[in-house]
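To whoever picks this up:

The parser on our side crashed when reading a file containing two proteins. I've narrowed it down to the boundary between the first structure block and the second sequence. Both blocks are reproduced below exactly, byte for byte. First block:
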Amino acid sequence: MRWPLIVLAVLVIVLQYPLWLGKGGWLRVWDVDRQLQAQRETNQRLEQRNAGLEAEVRDLKSGNEAVEERARFELGLTKPDEIFVHTPRKP
């Protein structure tokens, strides 16, 4: 009576091993799901960044306002009749 119970227990353990620890087991599925979620978050951040860059490129191609704004803020350029006043920010 004891041998069939032991054989049955061993059989259950042998059948459960691939389910939990095998190549397509639950632990592997959980790990891949976690990696997939992290990749989706990265993709979302990059899509937002790309949209911002695309808008900036479109703005630079379409008119002179964006070019003028960049020249003013990044290079400190002014028009001939303007006076440039710089107010430093407190750290």
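<<boundary where parser fails>>
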Amino acid sequence: MNEEASVEEKEVNPILPQSQESVREIENMKEQDAKHKVGYLWKLHFFVGFLTLCFGIMCNGGRKYIAVDHSKYESRQCDKLFVNVYSTSADEEGALICCRDDNTNSFSEIMTYEGFLCNKKLKSMPLAKALTRYPDSWLLPLIPLALRMVIIFFGKLLNRPHPHPHDLWTSTKRLLFLCSIFMVRGWGLYVFLNMVEDIVLSSNILSSPTREAVMETTNLDSCWFSPLFKSWQRKFSEEGDKCYGVEFDFSDHVVLFFSHSYPTMIFEAMFCFLVPFIPKERNHLNTSPYIKQPGGFHRVLEYFLETVLPIGLLLMFLYLNMLTLLAVHSTVAYYHSIGEVVVGYIISLFIQIPVGFIIYADGKWKNIRSLVGYPKDRDHHLD
């Protein structure tokens, strides 16, 4: 019997290392494939946003609209009224856009330039207003991260150790990193740069001829649409002797969308791609899921965490990105000049580009990835 056992060991044991090595090779191939996919997905995400911006600029045509008091416009009955602040009179083509609720019901009407601006259905889509509202705009990108942390705590309560024992700490680091992005965007790229913009426009930093030209085109006397102002617009214009909406104002909404919503959503989405909510234990021939207990409840819970939840988050990610791109197009095509949009987008690159490097770059960015709670080598290992 002993001789037979020794013969079996000689026959079987050499196979085990080969099997383990082949498993490692397969895992390494999957990791390399994941690296490339993450890079492609981020680049695709980035260029879709950039192309949306370019399309909005093409539709803009040098116009900039503000909403005014429609009740003061007696020529037509409007439910909402927009004025092109760069127009010279009400008779100019595109100077006024009069919106009526019953004029943009068909798809063909919505797809026109005026119809897209007037349509209420697009603006009333679920979560559409949350993108620009505090604290909603801060909380939405954090939903996948919050769910991951809840799952980790839930596993600890069940005494089920997570396959990544440091996942709670890395999730905390990503939470701090995302919150720091929100703070930099809010206080640095919005409040501080708005102060700089006001100083530049109101001081003698501009050359004298340039400043006189700016003041001449923005003062209240040259504002033909001032009778249509809302009360707060009139008050603002009278206090500064300015025609509201004409003076340069870089697009803070473009900064919001491209340095707040857009990069933070892809940041956590790519992490979920690299490290699923319930990953398989690595380096074992017989891998087992995170929750593997007998009973119907645990099987249902396992199916929910491994299948239903990721699909739901993917659909939410796609939906929020669609809303963001629609909001970008609306902002760029109607509410800001091309120069204001370009400046806002350039400002957003101060966050977009570093986040992109953290997601997919190699070299010195490995340590930074680990610092902000990302897999150091873009594989499934967490530090």
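After patching the parser it read the second block fine. The longest strand covers residues 80-84. Residues 5-18, 206-216, 281-292 have pLDDT under 50 and may be disordered.
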